[in-house]
Amino acid sequence: MARFDHTVTVTSLDRDWFEECAKAVLDTVDSSRARGGDGGPTVPGIRLLKGRHLRPGARYEITSDADEATDALRAAPSDDLIVVTVREWRRATAIAVEQRMESAELTARLTARLRTPDRPGALDVGFRMRNPGGGPLQRASGRAGLDLPAWWAAATARPGSLPPARAPLAVRAKHRLGRARLTVTPRPAAGGVWEVGVTLTVRGRSLLRPVAALALFFGQVPLRRAFRSGADRAAARWNEVLASGPLPDAGDLRAELLRALAD
Question: Residue 119: is its pLDDT beyond 90?
């Protein structure tokens, strides 16, 4: 087993702002329609294939631009397209969707469920992917969980408080050769920023564990370097986006989304 720890400093987000903007996005989505459906403004790049818009069972085709779709595109093989299915859409309780993608190089299935969307609670994501022409070594699966109330609690904890028993954000991945687990935990720091602790744990599986252990032994230094570099790049990108200008309020965001749909 190998374990890597790193801490990055990022600009903090205001919880009220985040939740107001999340609600604005959902309001805009609720007022929209997909090509082939009824309702408000059409969402570019999305065509309703089956069911009613934003109802359980609704199935959508994701294209580069639905407004430019042609008969030839409709006749294209389904494995060149991404299909999204609504499994649940109740803003008071949960929103759940499933995405499937098939191509010559990749077959993937992703599920996502957000509890209490109007005041975002826990987000659970699962994935499976494989190379259709490959063997067991070209398959992977995993799950990710983000407990938003726990995140906000950790991000606003008093100085000296004990860290949460469980990380608010955890990602697990499984491969024939091994398993990996990534955890992310914020804590408040001076100057209104967050210090975010990131931990990656990697271990081999079953009969292949000795092989994986040997690979980790010799590859631990470059893996640690890559892990820290990736965390630093992600933090830098986050800070760059938040520093690029004043954040829009919920009303401005809603207006911008509606303009984008109108265009």
Answer: yes
Place 71 in a pLDDT band, splitting at 50, 70 and 90: very low
CA separation, residue 58 to residues 5, 89, 110, 216, 254 (Å):
42, 10, 16, 45, 24
Other Cβ atoms closer than 10 A to 65? 9
- Residue type (1 letter), 200: L
Work out the widest C-alpha separation in the chain, in whole angstroms: 63
Tokens of residue 76, six digits: 């294209």
Distance CA 244, CA 255 (A): 20
**For position 74, what pLDDT does the model report?**
45
Q: How many domains does the chain have?
A: 1
Q: Which amino acid is at 208?
A: L
Residue 29 has pLDDT above 80, yes or no: yes
- The domain of 151 spans 2-262
Lowest mean pLDDT among 40-54, 62-76, 161-175, 215-229: 62-76
Q: Does this model's pTM top 0.85?
A: no
Task: Kindly write down the DSSP assignment for every residue of the chain, as one continuous string.
Answer: -EEEEEEEEEE---HHHHHHHHHHHHHHHHT-EEETS-SSSEEEEEEEEESSTTSTT-EEEE-S-GGG--HHHHTS-GGGSEEEEEEEEETTTEEEEEEEEE-SS-EEEEEEEEESTTS--EEEEEEEEE-TTS-GGGEEEEEEEEEHHHHHHHHTPPTTPPPPSS-SEEEEEEESSEEEEEEEEEEEETTTEEEEEEEEEEEE-GGGHHHHHHHHHHHHHHHHHHHHHHHHHHHHHHHHHHHSSPPP-HHHHHHHHHHHHH-
For residues 97 and 86, the answer to whether their CB atoms sit within 8 Å is yes
What phi and psi, each to the nearest 5 degrees, are found at residue 78? Answer: -65, -20
